[in-house]
Amino acid sequence: MNNKKPLLETKNLKKYFGGLKAVDGIDFSVQEEGLISIIGPNGAGKTTFFNLISGIMKPTEGRVFFQGRNITGWPPHRLAGMGLGRSYQITNIFPLLTVLENVRIACQSAGSDNYKFWQHHKSFSVYEEKAREILRRVYLEGREEQLAMHLPHGDKRKLEIAIALAREPTLLLLDEPTAGISTEELPELTALIQEIKELGKQQILLVEHRMDVVTAISDRITVLNRGVILAEGSPDEIMENQEVQEAYLGGGGAA
Ligand SMILES: Nc1ncnc2c1ncn2[C@@H]1O[C@H](COP(=O)(O)OP(=O)(O)O)[C@@H](O)[C@H]1O
Ligand SMILES: [Mg+2]
Asked: Do residues 44 and 253 make contact, with C-beta atoms less than 8 angstroms apart?
């Protein structure tokens, strides 16, 4: 295909919890290709794989490369600074601040001139404007002044994505962004992920259990089962794959 260095690459990546092989030798790579989904039954190792990539856990064995650099064992904040962004469930939100303040602070912390913010009123308004723009993109326009703690669940998930976007990541990791949201909220959340992809500034790695969402927006799908890659391919190829169907039926994690 092309011989450009992959954006992200894992080599023989493993994470064992005692005798449990949560991730058991994953060779995986992401080029500039839009949106890749990782699917698989409950307990397949998807979240653990994300934790290894984003520096939350250290691997038992194997290596992770980002933009050609060996980043194995690097802490999350250092990876975030390099452009590897992740939406953390709820924990990243300041509940007592407004929606706008949450995103503005994330914009500031990403800005290279963030120390100057205290001196220049001008940069404050730059970050605020950027935050408003991001909130429009995630369909939170009109919610700016609301306290984050008062947002309905679906809107909190959007705010998490907004905070991740504020750092302008090159690679955005989303772990089940639709978890716990209602059927009515689903189209908007799906649309906003699709729009992030179409804007083309971020490559997206998505863990998602709703197959309708995954097949609609993925350029490629990787299927994990019991810590290993079971299959990789286009949405059509994956849907037709017999082994994948059996893993879902046998694994109890059918969606
Ligand atoms: N911190 C942990 N300590 C022990 N076992 C864990 C830990 N995190 C995950 N596991 C186990 O690893 C396996 C994979 O979990 P996980 O990566 O969360 O799967 P998925 O996200 O695909 O549902 C599961 O059996 C889970 O119980
Ligand atoms: Mg998970």
From this structure: yes
Superfamily of domain 1-83+170-255: P-loop containing nucleotide triphosphate hydrolases (3.40.50.300)
User: Could you tell me the pLDDT band of residue 254, with boundaries at 50, 70 and 90?
Assistant: very low
Q: pTM for this one? A: 0.90
pLDDT per residue as tens digits for the range 142-193: 999 999 999 998 999 999 999 999 989 999 999 999 988 899 999 999 999 9
Query: Cα separation of 2 and 183, whole Å?
Result: 40
The alpha carbon of 17 and the centre of ligand 1 are apart by a number of angstroms equal to: 8
Domain ranges within the chain, ordered by starting residue: 1-83+170-255, 90-168
Backbone angles phi, psi at 66, to 5 degrees: -130, 125
Assess contact for 127 and 107: CB atoms under 8 A. Answer: yes
Pocket residues: Cβ below 6 A from ligand 1: 17, 20, 22, 40, 42-48
Closest atom of ligand 1 to 40 CA is 22
Q: What is the mean pLDDT of residues 88-117?
A: 78
Q: How far apart are the first and last CA of the chain?
A: 33
Instruction: Return the pLDDT at 128.
Output: 93
CA gap 77, 80 in Å, rounded: 5
According to DSSP, the β-strands at 171-175 and 203-207 are: parallel
Which structure tokens are listed for 63? Answer: 């290596």
